[in-house]
Structure formats: C-alpha cells, structure tokens
Amino acid sequence: MLRIALFGLLILFPATVRVAVAQSEKQPATLPLVISADFENGAAAWSPTDPASWSVVKLEDGSHAFKLSGVGKYKPPHRSPFSLAILKDKLLGDFVLTAKAKTLQTSRGHRDMVIAWGMQDPANFYYVHLGEKTDDHSNQIFVVDDAPRIKISDQTNAGTPWKDDTWHQVKVVRKIDSGLIEVYFDDMKKPQMVAHDKRFVWGEIAIGSFDDMGLWDDVKINGVAIKPSSLSHNDSSAAQPPVESKTKSAKEADKAPAKANDKSTKKMSHADPSTLEFFRWSGDVNVPDPVAISLDNQGRAYVTQTKRRKSQDLDIRANKDWIPDDVGFEWPADKQAFFHAQMPSGGPDPKKKRVDDLNRDGVKDWHDLTMLSEQIHRLEDVDGDGTADKIETYADGFQTEITGIAAGVLWHDGDVFATIAPDVWRLRDTNGDGQADHREIMATGFGFHIAYAGHDMHGLTVGPDGKIYWSVGDKGIHVVSQEGREFRYPNQGGVMRCNPDGSDFEVFAHGLRNVQELAFDTYGNLFGVDNDSDQKGEKERFVYIAKGIDAGWRCNYQYRGDGYNPWMAEELWQTRRAAQPAYLTPPLAYSLDGPAGFTFNPGTALSPEYKDYFFLTGAPGGVQVAFQAETDGASFTMTNQHKIGNGVPLVGINFGPDGGLYGVDWGGGYPLNEKGAVWKIDVPAAAKSPARTEVRELLAAGFAQRDTAELTKLLAHVDQRIRLESQFQLVKQGDLAALQAVAKTNKSQLARIHAIWGLGQLGRQGNSAAVKTLGELVADGDAEIRAQTLRTISDLPRYPQSSLTKGLEDESPRVRFFAAQALAAHPACGNLAGIASLLAKNNGADLYLRHAGAMALAARGDVATLAQHPQAEVRLAAVVALRQQANPDVAQFLQDADPRIVREAVTAIHDDFSIPAAMPAMAELLTHDLDASDAVMIRVINANYRLGDAVSAGRLIAFAENVESPLAMRLEAIDALAHWRGEPRLDRVDGRNREKYRISSDRTLPTDRLASLIAALLEDPSQKIRAATLAMADKLNLTLSPEGLQLIALDQQLDTELRVEAMRSLTTAKSDLILETLPKLWRAKSAELRLATLRQMEMPKFHDAAVVRIGQLLSRDDASLGERQVAIDLLGRIPGAEADALLVAELEKHLAQQMPEVQLELEIAAAAKASTSPQIAKLAARLQSDAADTAVIAPYRSSLFGGDAKLGEKIFMTHLDAACIRCHRIGKEGSDVGPALDGVAKRRDAEYLLRSIVAPSAEIEPKYRATTVLLVSGKTVQGIVTSEDDDELVLRDAQGKEVVIPQDDVDDLAEQRISLMPEMTKVLSRRQLRDVAAYLQSLK
User: Fold this and answer.
1) Of 275, 363, 1151, 1292, which one is least surrounded by beta carbons within 10 A?
2) The model scores a pTM over 0.90
3) What pLDDT, in 10s, does the model give residues 385-397?
4) Domains of the chain, with CATH numbers?
5) What is the mean pLDDT of residues 984-1010?
6) Which residues on neighbouring strands pair with residue 12, listed in sequence order?
C-alpha cells in the first residue's frame, strides 16, 4: 500500500480519482477561503514539528501572534527547514497565502522565515526561504524531493530586506497547471521570486523558519482543497504509460497534471541497491583499455579497445596553439589537410612536439599518426561457469591519421556496428571464425575537430523504428547522406540515426556536448546524460532527446577563457530559466559527475524492483546510480535516483541476454595501461527467475523460425528486447496483416505500440496500406496510441492522408507534441493557424510543445507573416523557426515590443553561420537609447564590428561616447574600435572561426570622429573608460600627448588600471618623458603599478634603467616578493656584464642562505645565461637538486614556495588543461570525482601538496585506492581494504558493503596504484605549479 505520511497525518490514496487533483485551466479570480488565522483563539489548527518551540504569545497592543522560539528537536530526513507549523487536515492545490511575519533573529546573511507547501511527506515538498542575503542556499524557492533541498527559482532578488522589530507582508501564489510559484514581500504587486515546477500538485501548507526565531500573524489562505477520501488507494509502483486510457479518459488524463501519474504525482520505488552484487565477469582475462560493450543474443561480449587516445587521436589541450584552426574545421578533410601541413611527410619535425616517432623513420610527421589501431574484441564464457575464459580480436585496422577512438559498439541482427570517427562501421563475421571479414562504412563525416580526447562517437543503440542511433561529442557533424542530403553541424555534438544499411541518414538532435551513451525507455522516448564543460559552477545534465532539439552547446564556447561566454553568461547549461533563449531546449535535471555508461532496464533484467529504471555510471570517479523518469506534460522529470555502487570506474554498460548489467572498467586513470575488465552487476536471487530464464532462452533461439501467431503474441511480452525482436521479424516477413490486426485490436497497449512502430517501418519502405492504417489510428481512443501513431507518421517520407491539425487540439500534451512533429514532416497536412493556436494556448508553459510548434513552423514558407501576431509566444516561436530556416525575414522581428523576441532575433542573425542579409538591420539597433540585455547589446556591437564599414564604426563611436550607455557595453564598443583594423580569428562574442564567412571587405575608420571620441573619452568620469581609451589609441597607433600621458601616470588619485595604461602608452611614445617618469613610478604606493612598470622595462631601450632599478630592489629588505621575482626574471633576459653581476650576486646569496621564494626565478635566469657565462653555469649546476634527494618532488622543489595563490586559484578553476575543479570540490564548487580539498592545508604539509600535483600516483588516499582480490575459485572481488590479519581480509565493496574473505581463499591481490588525476607537470609550467601549490597551501 502506498503510504504518504504527512507529518503525522496518514492518508491512503485511491488511483481511480487522481483527477480530483486537477485544477481548472485558469486559477479562479477568487479562490475559496480555507483559513483565516489571527491566533486570538489559539493555534489549534496548526501542528508544529516540535510543539515545544511554538507558542501563542500576547503582543504589546494586546493582540496575539504565533511565535517560533528557535530550533527544536525535530530533524528532517534531508537538509530542509527544522521548524515548521503545519496546517492540519488541509490538502491544497492552487492557493494564495498572505501573512504578516516578523523576524526575531539578529541580522545575518541567512536570517530567514519560511513558508512551505505541496507537502507530501517530510521528504517531499516546496518551500520559500526568505533569507536576508541571496546565495544558492538562501533567499530562493526550493524543492525537497527525496534529497537535500535544491533551488528551483527562475528569478530572485538580492535578498529579503528584513528590518528589526518590524512586521512585513508576505504572499505566496501557487498555480498548478503552469507550475507557477510567485513570492511577494511587502510589495504585493511585484513578485520578488518566481519559479515553475509541477512535481507536487497538492499537499499541506506550513509556516516557520529554517533555523531562526520569529512571529507569524494574520495568516489567510484561499485555495482549492483536496479531500483525502477522493485520492487513490493504488500502491502500484510499476511504470505507467505516459497517458493511461484504461483508468481515465483522454480528457481526464490531460486535465490531471502529468506528474500526477503516481505519487499522486510521484512514482514510488521499492528498488533496494543492497540486493545488487558486483562481479568481475572477465575473471583473470585481461580486457585492455576497454571503452564500450555490447552483448549478442548468445551472451558473447563485444568490447572496444582504444590504443589511439591522445597518442594518435590528439588532444587540443596539448596543442592549444591549434585552437583557432581547429575551431574552423568543417570536414574530416580539413583536419587531414591541416595535419599534413603541420606535420609534413618526411619532415622537418614540428617546432613543438605533437607526436612520437612511432614508425621509427627518424622524423615526426603525420605518418606517425597511422601506427596504432583501435580494436574490437569478443569475450566468451566457453565453459559456462559464469566467467569469461576466452578473448579474441574481432576487428582491427582502424588507423588513418584522422581516426578517432573506438568509443561505441553494438551487436544487432548478426552485424557489429562500431563508431570510430570519422566513420560508422558495419562489420560481420560471415564464416564463423570469430573475426569480421565483411566491413563497410555505413556513414562518415564525424569527429573532425581535434578538441578534447573522449569527445568521440559512441552510444550505439537500436531504436524502436529499427534504425541505428548513435551520438557524437562536440567534434562535429558534416555528412552528405546516401540520398545526397547535407547535414551541417560542424561545431556541435548530436544524435544521429539511419537504417542499418546506412540509408535514410539524419541528424536527430544537436547542440549536445558529449552524451556518451543513449537509452530508449519502454515507450520509445530517448534520453542521455550530457557532460559539462568544466566551467565553474556548471553541472552535468540529464536530457530528453526529442527529434530536432538544440541543446545549446557549441565547441567554440570551450575556449572562451575570460571572454564573454554565451554558455555560462546566458545560462544555456541550466535547467529551465526565464532568461534562456527560446531556440534552446534545456535539460530536465542535473546529474552525476563524469557521466559515461547509460542504459535502461528492458523489463526483466536484474529484479522486478528495478523495472523501468535507468542506470548511469560516473567515470572516472566510479559511482553508479539508478533513477526513473516520469511524464511531465510533453516532457519528463527525474525521480527515485539513488546510488547503487561506488569504486569500480565503469565506462560503457549494457544489459546481457541473461538479465545482468555488464560494464567495462579500463583499469585505472586516464592514461592507457593495456589493462581492464568486464564487470557484471546483478541480483543473484533473481538471476534464475522464470522471467529471466525465458528471455535468455528466447533470445538464444532467435526469431526467424517463429510463426506469425507466436510473434504477434510476443509483441506483448514483458521484456522490450523480445517485443522488438518480434516486431523486427514481422517487418522482415512483410507481415502487414498481423501488424494491422495487433495495432487495431490487441488488448495489450505495448503490443499495439510495437505494431505501430512496425507499420512505420513498412510505411518507410513504401507500403501504402501500412500508411493508411496509421492514418486510421490517429483518432484512436487511447491517447498514447494517438501519440505513438503521430510520432511514427512524423518519420514517414510521405503521408498522403487527411489533415493532422486535429491532433494539435488533443487533450494530451504528448499527442499535441507529436502532432506538431508530424506537421513538421508533412506541412501540407496542416495550416499556420492551427500551429499558432497550439503555441498560443501553451503560452510557453511546456518548452517541448514550443519546440515542436517551432519545428512545424520551420517547415512552412509563411512563417514571417506571424510578425504581427498578437500573442508574443507565437512570435517567439516564429523567430526560432526562421532561425532554423536561416531566413533573412527574421529581421522583421528586430523592432518587436517584447524584448525576448528582439533577443531571439538577434541571436538568430548573429550566431552559428549567421544570417548575413539580416546583419545590417541588426547593426542599426545600436542607438543611444538601446535598452537591452547584455546578450543583445554585445551581439549588436559585434554586428557593427563584423560589418566593418564607416557607418558601423560611427554607430560604435556614438554609443561609446554616450555616458548613459551601460559601462560594460561602452567598454566593449571601445575595445571593438581598438581592434577594428584586423578581425580576430575567433569571434569576439562566441569564439567561432568565421574566417571563411567574413562580411566586411574594407574595414574603414572615420579618423576625424575617432580623434574627437578619444578627446571626449579621456575626460570621461569613468576611469575604466579612460584606461580603455588609452589602450585603444595605443592599439590604433594614434599619437597622444606625452605630457598628458605623464600626468595621468603620475596622478596618485587615479585608479591603478588607468595609470598602468598611461604608463604603457608613454613607453611606446617617442618621447624622453618616460625616462623621468619611471623613477617616480618606482615609488608608487600601488604594488600592481610598480610591477607593471618593472615588466615594461624588458624593452631594450630601458635596459640601462632596468639594471639600476633591479639593483635597488635586490639591495632592499622591503621590496615585495613579486618585485624581487620579476627583477630576477629580468636578469635572465637583459644582456650585459652589469646584469650578469647582479644575477651572480643573487645566486651566491641564495646558495649561502637559501631564498626558496625566488629559487625558481634563479633557476630559470641562470639557465638562460649559463651558455654565455661560465661563472653563472657553475652556479646553476649547484642549484640542481642533490643526487641523494630521491623524492619525486626533487626536480620541483623550487615550486614549493613563492607562488601567487590568486593566480593558482585561477588556474585551478579555469585552466583548459589542468581543469582541477572538474574533479575536486572546494566548498560548493567542483565535483566529487577526487578528494574534496576544503581545509586541505590543515591536514597536509607543503611537500605533500606539491607531490600530489607532480606525481599524483605516488601517494593515493586509501579510500581512492581499490584492491582486486583473485580467489582460489577463480573469481575476483574488488573493493577498498578496511582491515587485514592472518585469518581474513575485509573489503568495502562498490556498494559500501563489508566483504569478509578468509585468507585461505585468497590466491592473489593487486592494488590500484594509478591515480585518476593526470600529472600536472605535463600541462603546467613550473611557475604555474608553484601558484597552484600556493593556492592549495592557502586552503585552511
């Protein structure tokens, strides 16, 4: 029985009346009064979590209020409010709550009061935290969903303005249909916080505080009350179809919020991870460097091995100077030609090491990239003891100079498909010798960017339509199909599909970064988990991959550094946000760090408790989780997520025919070591269940010899694999009549759905009768059948049937969604008015309906006529459609009254390949009164820059002059003018390489206006503007008054930034004033200015002055460390006897008394001068580490001290190669792949911290060091050793369970000694190592 314990109130919910939860389409103007509580007669209507903390008190005016005196004894199951008073016996849907609140807490950042609602039980509800200051845990709207609270606010303010001893007015508005939540504070007209969420559509309401004291009074609630007696007693936890016609009509199903399918909103799960066991299925068979796995119907495993990763398939992080070229590649041929040019055949060797001389011909050229082959192995349990005992190479020879890694494999219907960029291979063993003797390229044109290692093709799976699906990371897509269609997404990752023979190829979805594996659920919905880009604060994302979505990522965003980055600045990576553009389909939820393997339980695998679960692995951290997805309108939400394992770094996973979950472990960190294993996760108690035994036997026997009656019966089987095999066999046989009969009349909904999919396969082959049957099913009484039929019609090449417009008005959001997708494929079956009506009624509430509507519009030629449509949401979708068409008519929307629509039009014109014909109209938006978001302004500025003519320059000048324009955008305009004469290789806004597509032909600057601009800006009240102006003048080689520059440089009242820029301009001016200015700047109070001046003296004309200044600094005790380091560094660069003498003196001083903070500079300077000075050479030799010092940090001891912690923090957070924050957590930032580093300097000394950077495998924390135990029986167990004595060995396995092994049973054991962390010495300089070490030493 499903029990929802509402803080003491036990309610049993019957399924047949879940529709009672449904609210009307619009909230009534006046909701019924539920309660009005002034506490004059007590608080009997409220039930506190700890009654001892609550009381009714008399106020000074004689009235009464409900007082919370502090945190009581109540402890919530997850991080959430500690002190609540819950309104008794009232379950509400829509409501409006108003109240008076007074805090009794002294001022602090998290001073708060709380209102909660939608309370299902202590672990599931919403609340608003009215906190004094805003951060991720304060002053937000939160949800508690079987986990610690997470913020869901679309918008909030800077903080709730609590005043001491003051009553404040508070209001909360909740609307179920749209998911709207609004929170008001004092100002009852404008909400201070807004969110949208539909997971809890009813529940109790409470007042209180997270952990503070306060008073409540005059609490009034108007709302729609739900009676417990009208709710369901059904306790079924089995997955329900998205719309279940058997229990409610289609009309009722749509009126009830989609989330209300169960928990009367939430699926209840009885899955128990403790029932799962991890077993090393490969036993003592080594599986070298595995990446992906697929099992055939006989239980044989096909595993890919990578040999080329990083050594042959290069990584851009080791070749950062290639980034501008790499971003511009659009075909595999571009990458090939580039390699040939950079590493020419026969030499000479590249100036920078790119590849080893692997073919040993004496030169390092592109031929060395062809020496190692990816491989596919086949593993088999020949003797049937449950452990693999045979491995053989199934296929190799994948090794051109642009071949990527073998990251995906799929066995299907006798073929083995493999994704090895730039190709998708179809392989077959025709003679039974265990090796592929037939091989063909099914599709090509993928993965042509160098980019990040691991962003390859993967995710091979079979779709319900019989097509092969796969994914590719952001290394690019540019394909010409067999039919001659071009698909061009060169800077994006995506999902593709085609028939098994390669025909009917298409890009299914795009804008993904690196979804490694794909999974279809029971109803053919496709999901994946996308990796983050290692930006600070960013997270991995669970995505519903519907046809045509753009998830927003472009590979050029990866390299933005400190520049404007749309991915982060415009919140493209986040779940739904109000500020996001409409072309984007955001993720459903955030997910596990380092997502890799991903699959779905086909029905009978593992145990019944894990039916309808997805399984996800995190690599290299070694965490595995399971979760479910519930229908939410036309989309889904994640639910019931829980950890199932930890410790085994599984990469690819797949279910075997025996119902076990198999995964590959490549035996350590990122470096290849030719080791690895295949693991099996299973529920031993269910392994021989009748259901799993039947599936195994059915799959092993095959389906070719089964008759029609059996195949049609199997279409209703509990296991998806059996249903699909039966469907595909009926299609092979061309058994139209059987499929028609099942689709029309079968009692099983799943059988009907599979028959519909089969009819779609026949329809795509040209069977008109199958298409006709599909047309008849569009009006079926089951909403899910209607949805699946329309989905199938959307994939047909032709559909000559009647109008599909009626589907746009269906009560089910899934039906409406697929109807719009069908119209995108068959626009003649609909009309513009119907699509516009769908969009208008949706009004942006369901983003997947918006997406489908925009797709339908994009298939039409009359979209621009919607420019005058009265509904903003319709116009917004029209702009998205015009973007998809690359239609210049999008310029008509630039003058729209709604800023969202203007922004959408601007991004459509500017981004990706741009719409050049609309660019002039966009540039004209740059006027003195332009009032828009940064996303719009920065693109409009860039449009003028890209046009490059005198008129556009004039607009930038006028905008920069205007003191009313936003400061940041004025600075952007000035910088654009500074770089006017030469466009950068990578775009100023989005980092795209548009060298092939430049718009300007003659970049002209109106010099007369420029002179007056500089004069005006040098008088600007903003010193940042004045500094930027000096930099612009210097960049454009414009002469400024040396006297004026000197005055600025010496003015101590000015900001350092401006003075530094004036000093730099003065050093490049042809004036002797700089020589008299420098000594004065040496005495400046600003250390930053002194350092900048010192660095400028590397210029040859200042060498004499530099030697004087360096001598002064090194002779003084009060010189800053930064100045001493820069001074010594300059001595290594400045020629001459005086500089050498100073360097000798410092070297001797260091050798005599040790100056560790400058040792690194001394080593570098001495090395630079050693070849010209024997005396310095001898001293340099003495600096080298003592031969007796065998510590791994010996060569790096000069990086122990003297680093800049601020620079180290920047490297830690943002460095492209190091990406430390990608694996480590500090406070709220980072991930849990590696150890958290909060307070690490308290626990570890400086040498340990440096050692962990330069030699991470030298000392691995025990909890990150796994041991594999080989038992006498031949089986293996892996885990962390917790204790050992003469009698037994105790491990903690992947699930945290204790495993006790008698020592007599142990044959051998091997401890993992390879850290997951790369050696930073390969990606950071010694100075950078020192700075990172300094940062770690600061973490106390």
Assistant:
1) 1151
2) no
3) 999 999 999 999 9
4) 3-261 (2.60.120.560), 280-686 (2.120.10.30), 695-914 (1.25.10.10), 1205-1262+1317-1337 (1.10.760.10), 1267-1311 (2.30.30.100)
5) 91
6) 3
